Amino acid sequence: MGTHFKIYLKALSAITILLLCTITVFPQKDLKKAFYDKLASEDLAAIDAEIEKLAGESSTLNNAYAGALMMKKAGLLKNPVNKLKEFKSGREKLEAAISKEPDNAEFRLLRLLTQEKAPSFLGYNKNTEEDSRFLRANFKSLDPSVQKVLSDYSKTSSILKPSDFQP
Fold first, then answer.
1. Contact status, residue 66 vs residue 92, Cβ threshold 8 Å
2. How confident is the model at residue 12 (pLDDT cuts 50, 70, 90)?
3. Domain ranges of the chain
4. 118 φ/ψ angles, rounded to the nearest 5 degrees
């Protein structure tokens, strides 16, 4: 093999690795943005579509996201029986994800967001203090886009304060 061909192969390999890294990194960012956009919305059809998309690939992250979205969806449903069923299913998914990855700060954020907003009669509010302490201690471990979500949320939270997340 000629020297030029070897250089060409090395360059091609480097470009391939760079492209693969780009393909795997950017979809993760897009997934997070799409998820948090849906979680903040009141659009039932968009939330359903995102839940369906997440169900297509089973992972702990997708299960945590789907669980949080299902609990959000429950608040938008009209039928009380369907509301409760959807909420319980979502809670089970999120809690299972937290059980698998108890040190995942993003999953703890999802639970705190939900527990702070959940009606008290559901009894899903037992971890707010624990999760808020965990988030304060592990803020820097979060993806920057999730740090922004948490910082923004702290402005309206009854348990978190913006000053909790200042450098």
1. no
2. very low
3. 37-159
4. -70, 140
